[in-house]
Amino acid sequence: MDAFSAAAEPNRRRILQLLASEPRTVSDIAAEFTVTRSAVSQHLLLLADAGLVTAEKVGRQRIYRVVPDGLRSLQAEIDRFWTDELDLLVADAHAHAHPNRSNP
Amino acid sequence: MDAFSAAAEPNRRRILQLLASEPRTVSDIAAEFTVTRSAVSQHLLLLADAGLVTAEKVGRQRIYRVVPDGLRSLQAEIDRFWTDELDLLVADAHAHAHPNRSNP
DNA sequence: CCAATACGTTAGTCGTCACTAACCTATTCG
DNA sequence: CGAATAGGTTAGTGACGACTAACGTATTGG
């Protein structure tokens, strides 16, 4: 699974945001969710597989953190998707609300 | 399915890009893929369900086009995901390759 | 009018995702 | 050492996504 699809799942989006604010253990993350620790663990493994997070073993815990390079790949993937033509259409949506064109 | 997840699927990413460049019929789109027209049609229905595309019936064809407002929602969703903290980590990945910090 | 065209629709398959419950392993603390 | 803790692992389930093949329906051109 590529980084884009991996990051798209709602729970994983939140996990990435949490880890971006600071590295955490699995239990810390699981405490923020209604799903079980096992489910969170599996999301983390999937994210690790996509190169987006990594685990550092410290004593009996595993500190998960975001991998900056993986995040850069994700950003690149999103940018590659978001073509200029798509961007132009968003600008047109703006123009609809505020009907000022570039050359009126 | 929210717009983010809907847009994440690789084939649908390409479909959105194609439609962004110009509106097309289902057959036109399907010609660009190895999967069947039926599969493409189902992707289009899902994208329509997510508010990202719309179909205009013209004779016996259906011209699909991107919905600018839906695209705006998608962009907003992506922006909401991509927090400043995630952005900062990407900047740090840069700093690793070019070790110039903001305050050296 | 009838055959061809453009699509949607449906049924069915296959794979995979998200999840829980239960179990196993490693580590630490008393 | 033995209980408790942290977390990976596995099996099993329900659901869903992606896909194909076959069929149904509207539209149009000869």
Automatic annotation (TrEMBL), chains A, B:
Pfam families cross-referenced by the UniProt entry: HTH_5 (PF01022)
Keyword Heme: no
InterPro entries associated with the record: ArsR-like_HTH (IPR011991), HTH_ArsR_DNA-bd_dom (IPR001845), HTH_MetalResp_TranReg (IPR051081), WH-like_DNA-bd_sf (IPR036388), WH_DNA-bd_sf (IPR036390)
GO molecular function, one term: DNA-binding transcription factor activity
Protein's UniProt keywords contain Disulfide bond: no
PROSITE patterns per record: HTH_ARSR_2 (PS50987)
Entry-linked SUPFAM superfamilies: Winged helix' DNA-binding domain (SSF46785)
Keywords: DNA-binding, Transcription, Transcription regulation
Residue span, HTH arsR-type domain: 1-86
Name of the featured protein: Winged helix-turn-helix transcriptional regulator
Protein's organism: Nocardioides antri
Lineage, opening ranks: Bacteria, Bacillati, Actinomycetota, Actinomycetes, Propionibacteriales
